[in-house]
Amino acid sequence: MPIPATQFIWFNGKLVPWEKATVHVLSHALHYGSSVFEGVRAYETPRGVAIFRLRDHTRRLFDSAKIYRIHMPFNAEAVNDACRQVISANGLKRGAYLRPVVFKGYGEIGVSPKHDPPTDVAVAAWEWGKYLASHEEEEAGVDVCVSSWNRVAPNTLPALAKAGGNYLSSQLIAAEARRLGFAEGIGLAPDGTLSEGSGENLFLVKDGVLLTPGLAHSVLGGLTRDTVMRLARERGIEVKECALPRELLYVADEAFFTGTAVEITAIRSVDRLAVGNGKLGPVTETLQQAFYGLFNGKTEDKWGWLDYVDMSVKKVAASG
Asked: What average pLDDT is seen over the chain?
């Protein structure tokens, strides 16, 4: 999906024109994958544009940088403010997808140079629709497969860090799935149990119980994942984080992906086998309604997850 350009990107403390937010070809991250990032959504709500779980996303960004020992030259509130700025400055009144990214820039070469390259920080925002499915397909669900590629093993690459290099594994899973005619692939953990999709957490429903792989099964601790589990428990749905065998995919009553990009997307079939009756299940539908209700006002935001953006704030002068 092409990225629709907006006017400004926040880059190292300043708003710069979209086309001028560039980096050197010898930046460390380009060669060694030394970057961490976030995907964040802002929604149009009855009270105006609101960023969903902004502080939680920024905290995970800092946690990812800490795991990889990437120095952060800005504090968390500066990053939060940058996210608000790029929405307001670009006039994204209908909501947006935000991409904060932190990476080792141009300096010394080498996997672990004597002197660390400087850290660059950028935040971009643009309008982005559905990731895996259109609005119509979201209700029907998507067709997926189990990938021949496993997720990374513990003590190789830390799955809890949302790092750029980790997504090489995701690219292999997604590319294989689409080559075979599926919308997405599901990776297994090194022990053969279920892990996650290329960029989504995985949930199954069996006999009314909501099941998802635990954090020890090479999954990212997704914030939409956490949101879904909290909303489910609020509605009396039992939730279990545990090891799940591959074959449970084929006998589950319902299945769905979660993530900032995919939000809550139903899975219609796995490896050409229908999930349940092949239609949107009641638990999935309930959780979709509760999730989207956070943004249309039908679900109370009792957790303070919505960070409202003051769109009347004047644009900060952009660096040319």
From this structure: 94
